Amino acid sequence: MSLLPVLAITVGGGAIALLVRREERAATAVAMVALVATLAALAVVRPGDATTIGGVTVVATEYGRVFLGLGALAGLGTTVIGAAAGMPRDLPAATLLGLGAATLALASSDPIVAVLAAAGGSFVAVLVTLAPPRSAGTTGTAAHHLRAVAVATAVALLAAAWLSRPTGVVAAEPEAAGLALLALATAAALRWAAIPFHRWAARVAVVVPELGIPAVILWGAAVLALVILGLAESSLAVTGAPFAAERAVIVTVGVGALLLGVAAAYLHDDLGHILTYAIVADAGIVLLALGALDPSAWAPVRLWLLGTVVTRTAFGAWAAAIRAAFGARRLRDLGGWARRAPLLAGALLAIAIATVGWPGLAVFDARGDVVAAATENPLTAIVLIGTLGHIGYFARIAGAGIGRRSAAVAGGLDAWPRWPARGVSIRPADASRIWRANRGPMASLVVVLLAGLSLLVAAGGLGGPRAASGGLPRPTPSAAPSPSIVPTASPSPSPTRTPTPTPSPSPTASGSVDPSASVDPSASVSPSP
Amino acid sequence: MNPALAVIGVAVLAGAVVAVAAHEGRPAILGLILALIAAPLVAAPLPPVLPLTARLVAAILVGYVLWIAMRGAPTHGRTRGSRLGWPVEALGAAAAAVVGFGLGGAGAGGNPEAMSVGLALTALAIPPLVRGDALQVGIGTALLVTAVEVLRVGLAGPASPLEHLAASAVLAAIGAAVALLVDASIATGGSLEVADRRPGGARPADEGIEPVRPWYRPRLRR
Question: What ipTM was predicted for this assembly?
């Protein structure tokens, strides 16, 4: 029940912000108030609190609370930066509605409802892609975006419907379950724009301002990925089937997406593209976790996701602040930016540390655990070295920052606060003048705060590791087993699969699946593809 | 076979055929509304009244916002409907329906009528999804999500009330996104064509970086 206020505030606030979208200031104000209210409502959420809505149990979890809290904080930060530096028109409304969708997706015990909720948040993000000013390529990009989300949703829904049946029924058809695993991976890859499904995201990088890119590509994809990983954990991993071929394909695509994404981010000169390809590279880790299909990967990937969404949002905010200050987004036009904007230079350093990390840092270790669970040496070493490739594009950006000052940087904004004019005093009537004169420094300050938040999460702060180990609600099987499908004996015994899983004739009220009831402890899933 | 479900299924597919085959926007939207309204009824037992009402409202909302967006369309809202014509689309859907019925509700608790309608709707939804026309992309998206929802009933039995509410919200979000897409297409290109599929194959100059849109506010400068 304690989640309902969060749902009401985010969806209600998002709807109001959408209704008043033509009045940008009003929409921004509504979004800020709603995001602050969301944080307050999240503070009183009690993990474990369950309620039944429309026949589905909705359970508050610690992980969901942390994820939504980070989403609200990141949304608040981007809204303030947007108010100072400009943003896509529907970004505040899309942020709130996306948070509302995430609230339901991360709390639902019915995987199909969770997928639908995640899809709703993703479809709303198309509004950001279509925000004015519209260039010639906006509609083509939005159409690509819409298609990608639609196909990812359809594929994920089909797989969820197949897997939401009792564990015994799923385990009795390992080939179909393997196809469902591939479908889940395809949905995650499509939605997260993993290479080779990245074309729509590359176009988004052109038409959507940097501040909106994480909202369009990343946040909805992260929610869908969490739902998919939860489904794989509860429905596929417990069957005990090896899924060797399917996992090999998924791991191969994951490794490719990671390495090629990092390389593409390094090669690009445009901040929007660098950010986008950094996000594309992140999809590789999700696919590796899915390909691992191993209990040792679930908690680390959830922890890594917490860090990634905040870090990429901070990176997008940083790029937006740079563009607002200097009116440029190409590295060749940003020579000497770091000397002109030292606050932003410090923020970039924090973002780089939160992205790459070092041994002992929670997010670094989590990423390493996922890679180790999915691959074997020497591939593990190659992939781990590949993840350090993020240093490359950060080094290029930093190199431009300390290089010769470009014309755009020389003519850009001063990074430090200033008093607008003599005679202006601290009173409500002059507040807007003071705000207008200091929007650049204000944006830089909020970027620093977001970078600090990403560093905190990367270090395991805000209870991330504990929340990640707790996980999300276990899916509830939604249909009774059919006598024609329930096996009385294993149709094709496999040495690594449990031969006779016995499905429950009627799903229990809690819907939890006891792995020990259906998995032979000796039949462990090999971590290698 | 349940005759009532068969009749509803025929209504769903008739609406979908009109939606994907019509060359004018308004008949296409009316067909889409019919398909979206009737699709949740392909279930046994029927969904409760409240979720059904939500689906009804969502379907009408999708049609209404598309109708509003199409008001500014030139040439009577001409859209790139099926080049093969409605008989071919209908026959393709019928073939898919037969295959779906043959699968017989492949999942536990599912039903063959829903599998049949879901597969036929999927077959109808894919062609418009890849057309370079804003309205057709929207119709394809709405039909595809609806098709998978019906297939899900065929696989795993009736949906829960919350699932119907979530599906309604997704449809409303699709409607809003597609209405904006239609509006943007008309505003930027004067037609429903999306920008990267203009006749002659010319692509807009957005594949590279130039021109960078000055979305930042110039008044930030001193």
Answer: 0.85
